[in-house]
Structure formats: structure tokens, C-alpha cells
Design brief:
The structure is a single chain. By secondary structure, this protein is of the alpha+beta class. The protein has one domain. The protein has two helices and five strands. β4 (94-100) and β5 (103-106) form a beta hairpin. The chain is elongated and about 65 Å long. The mean pLDDT is 86.
Amino acid sequence: MAQAGSRRGKIGSALMLIGVIALGFGAYNLRALTWDTETGSVDSCVTRSTRSSNKSGSSQYTSHQDCTVTWTAGGTKHQAKVTFDGGKDLSRTEQKISVKGGTVVAYADRYTGLLYAGGGALMIVIGLVLWSRRPRL
């Protein structure tokens, strides 16, 4: 029975750690929730690939597009560098962006941040329950 309790505590701790990471990621994505949404014209892009290894040791590549985007807000033309996920060249297309002051990011679905933050909070609560119900030595 002591091993089951020990396992419960370890699972609870792991859930809390994953929950804190998910909550932080969700909160970071929520920062753009109140930002203005604009449609920008993508002038040119450069593809950037990042290599990462998985548990089996094989390599995986994640592609991003570093693009120059132009948009008009309040009668003024603006231009900025924006990074979009994916390997597809977005040059000469229209893309949604989120803008606040001098900060511009690729538009993300507004519910993604809420989903991660809510899921992270739920994992923290479940982890706390499991951790608190472990047997004490």
C-alpha cells in the first residue's frame, strides 16, 4: 500500500508541474486577447527550420516563416517582422495579426490561451488532490 501512495504522490507532483507549464503558456497566449486584430499583407518570407530530437533519438524539424508584413491602422501604414508557424511560404498573401503598440504577433485563436490556462489549472487541482491524499510516513 505504501508504494501505491508513493506513486500517487509522484503522479500528483508531475501533474502539478505540467499544469504550471500549461497555465504559464496559456497566460502568455492570453496577453494578446485584448490586442487589436488587423489583416496584413505579407511582402516576403524566409523559411527557418529548427531541429529537435525525440525520445527515440530521431530528428524532427519544425518550420517557421519570418515574414515582413504591412498593414494600415488609423490611416497610417505600418510594417513589421512577424513569425508564422509552418513551412508554407506566405509571401503575397493576407494574414491576420495581433497588434498592440509596437508589438506585432501572428494571430492566434483567442480560445487557445483559455484552453491551455484552464487545462493547466485543472491539472494543478487534480495534482494537489492526488498529492495531498498520499500516505504520510
